[in-house]
C-alpha cells in the first residue's frame, strides 16, 4: 500500500523505512494467502517441505513471473521518472513557477516538493493499478476499485503531508551546509528514521480498522500470553490488535510493529479465522524473536551506517551529474530546488544499488527469527517442526508464493528467505533431539 514513487523511495530511504520495515514485517511479504488445511500431508519425507496443489502451483508460477518483473521494473521506472523530470526541464520550470506564486521561500519550497511528490506518485499509478488488477485476478485481493482508489488518495495525502516538509528540511540542510550537506542530511535522517518506526503504527488506522484482540478472540490471547511468558517479550494483551483485513484481502498476516509506547502486535482477522491457533503462535513467536533479538535497533544501526556512506556516495554522483548534465537540464547548483532534484535522482540510484544488500541482511534476521520462533514453541505446542511447516505452507498458499524461485531473483528482491527454504529448515530443525538444546532457549 502507499505511494512508492521517487518521492516515496527517497522518503523511505531517508526515513530508513525500507530496512527498518523488513525487521518489523516478520512473515509479511513471503507469507500470506492459503486455506488448504491438508497441505502438510502432501509434504512427505523426501519431498519439498513447501508444496502447492497443482492448480495453485500453476497460479503461483504465473503470479511469480509477474511479481519478478514488477519488482525489477518498478524501481527502474522511478529512476526514469526522476531523470525525465530533470531532462525535460520540468523541475527547473516548476522552480521558476513557485517563485512567482509566493514571496516566502519556505512556502515556495513546500509547494515545489508537494508538486514533486504528487507527480512521482502519479507516475507510479499505472504500476500500482496493474498490481491491484493482478491481485484481484488471482483471488488474493478482494478490494473494490472504489476502496482501492480511496486508499491510494489517502496514501497520496500522507506522502505529500509528510514528504513535502521532510524534503524541505533536507533541502534546507543542503543550502545551509553546501560542502558537508551529505553529513548534515545524515544527522537529520537518522532520528527521522527512528521517528518513522515509532509513528508508523499510529498511521495504520487511516487505512484499516483495528480492534482489541482480547475482544475478538480471548482464547487466542490467552495462548499468546504463554509465548509472551516463555520469551519475556513485553507485549501485554492491551497491545494486541485485530485488523479487519478481510474486507480487502484473502491474504494472511500478523506482525509486531512500533517501539516503546507504540509497540504492538497486529493479527489480521483472516489469520484468526483461517489459521489454527498453534500456527498463529508460531507466527507470533517469530515476530517476538525480532523484538527479543533487537532486530529493529540493529537494523536501524546498520541502516544508519549504510546511509552515511550512501549519502556521501550519492553526493559525489549528484555532483558529477550536475557537471555533466546541469547545463542541459537548466539546473544551476545543488542548492537550487531543481538541483536538489539531482540529489534525489542520485539517492534513488543509491537505493537500487543498496537494495540487494539490505535484502540480504533482512533475510539473515528473518532466518534468525524463524529459529527463535520454532524454539519458543518447544513445550508449548506438541510438534514445533510440524507446526512451523504447516504455517509456511498455509501462508505460502494464501499468497501464492512461488515454491522454486530463481536464486538471482531471491538475491535481488526477497527480503525474506523463500518459503521453500524456510519450510525446509523448519522441517529439519529439532535442536532438542539427542539431548541438545536450542540456540536461544536452553529448555
Ligand atoms: Zn520476520
What are the main properties of this structure?
mainly alpha, 4 strands, 443 residues, 4-stranded mixed sheet, binds zinc ion, elongated
Kindly describe this structure.
This protein is mainly alpha-helical. The chain has one domain (6-435). Helix content is 68%, strand content 4%. The chain has helices spanning 6-14, 17-24, 39-42, 54-87, 90-101, 105-137, 145-176, 181-203, 213-216, 218-231, 269-274, 277-292, 295-329, 337-376, 384-398, 407-413, 419-428, and strands at 210-212, 240-243, 254-257, 264-268. It is elongated, with a radius of gyration of 23 Å. The structure holds zinc ion. Zinc ion (ZN) binds next to helix 12 and helix 14.
Computed structural class: mainly alpha
Give the tally of β-strands. 4
* Span between termini: 41 Å
Question: What is the element string, with H for helices and E for strands?
Answer: HHHHHHHHEHHEEEHHHHHHH
What is the 3D shape?
Answer: elongated
- The radius of gyration is 23 Å
Main sheet summary: 4 strands, mixed
Helix content: 55-70%
Q: What's the rounded overall pLDDT mean?
A: 89
* Distinct ligands: zinc ion
Tally the helices: 17
Spatial sequence of strands, sheet with the most strands: 1-2-4-3
The share of residues in extended strands comes to under 5%
Contiguous low-pLDDT stretches (5 residues minimum) are 1-45
Whole-number tally of structural domains: 1
